[in-house]
């Protein structure tokens, strides 16, 4: 019996380029919760960044694994938190400086896990356009910085790749050389996640399951890309959407329709029926 549904966001629950999940998906999530099934995003985004995708509905982000396993929540309570080393992030920014248009984005959070994050562009020359973040799909213009604030924690980060000038594989090699303590899975053609090497979404799963008192066999997981591989392998009832990468499709135990067709919502509706 499924007691917890966890889903990746971009490319799985949220079509690339969309600002919010569909109304159908939103309603399916609430219906699952009303039926006593926990739902949570399992995303590279942190909690504050996920909230707008669910129309600001706190219920949809009260449980989940976020920031690639650096945040875990159950019923609104923070049960796990990690952060990325700031010195490594600064090294990453320096390594990306020669690459036109591409940069790292560090999302810094205060001690309050429910507060909004402040975003900082690393690897952008001071005279360059801060608005390059808009080219990469960010929803605000973010100024480049030479130093991250000492009183905050880097809860999530990524590399926006300007594919007109740079190849993601090349930038990944440069980043790995500069920051061997970090890893850079690719959830989208234009984006590389920045995670602590050896720590993934699946690393946070035991803490969430222990807090809930459920087993991996009582979890359904949905994903589409490289940063989902460990979860797709760890959860017996895992599903790749039809638009998943070949690696994600191979790692999943089951397969469903495409993200654009609300396949996860369809699964929830069928489960409740």
Automatic annotation (TrEMBL):
Coiled coil regions in record: none
GO molecular function: hydrolase activity
Pfam families referenced in this protein's UniProt entry, alphabetically: Hydrolase_3
InterPro entries reported in the protein's UniProt record: HAD-like_sf (IPR036412), HAD_sf (IPR023214)
Enzyme type, top EC level: hydrolase
Family matches, as SUPFAM superfamilies: HAD-like
Stored PANTHER family: HAD SUPERFAMILY HYDROLASE-LIKE, TYPE 3, PHOSPHOSERINE PHOSPHATASE
Keyword terms of this UniProt record: Hydrolase
Keyword Zinc part of the UniProt annotation: no
Hydrolase keyword on record: yes
Annotated source species: Paratractidigestivibacter faecalis
EC number from the UniProt entry: 3.1.3.-
Protein known as: HAD family hydrolase
């Amino acid at each position: 019996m499924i007691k917890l549904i966890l889903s990746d966001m971009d490319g799985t629950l949220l079509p690339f380029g969309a600002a919010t999940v569909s109304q159908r998906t939103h309603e399916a999530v609430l219906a699952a919760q009303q039926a006593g099934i926990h739902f949570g995003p399992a995303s590279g985004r942190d909690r504050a960044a996920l909230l707008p995708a669910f129309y600001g509905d706190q219920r949809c982000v009260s449980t989940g694994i976020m920031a690639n396993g650096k945040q875990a929540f159950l019923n609104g309570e923070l049960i796990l938190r990690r952060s990325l080393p700031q010195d490594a992030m600064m090294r990453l920014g320096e390594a990306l400086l020669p690459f036109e248009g591409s940069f790292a984005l560090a999302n810094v959070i205060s001690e309050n896990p429910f507060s909004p994050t402040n975003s900082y562009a690393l690897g952008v020359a001071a005279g360059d356009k801060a608005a390059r973040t808009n080219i990469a799909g960010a929803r605000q213009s973010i100024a480049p910085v030479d130093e991250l604030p000492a009183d905050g924690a880097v809860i999530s980060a990524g590399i926006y790749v300007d594919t007109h000038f740079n190849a993601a594989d090349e930038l990944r090699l440069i980043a790995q050389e500069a920051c061997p303590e970090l890893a850079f899975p690719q959830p989208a053609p234009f984006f590389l996640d920045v995670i602590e090497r050896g720590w993934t979404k699946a690393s946070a799963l035991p803490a969430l399951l222990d807090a809930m008192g459920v087993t991996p066999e009582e979890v359904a997981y949905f994903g589409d890309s490289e940063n989902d591989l460990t979860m797709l392998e760890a959860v017996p009832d895992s599903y790749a959407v039809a638009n998943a990468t070949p690696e994600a499709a191979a790692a999943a135990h089951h397969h469903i329709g495409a993200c654009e067709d609300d396949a996860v919502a369809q699964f929830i509706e069928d489960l409740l029926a």
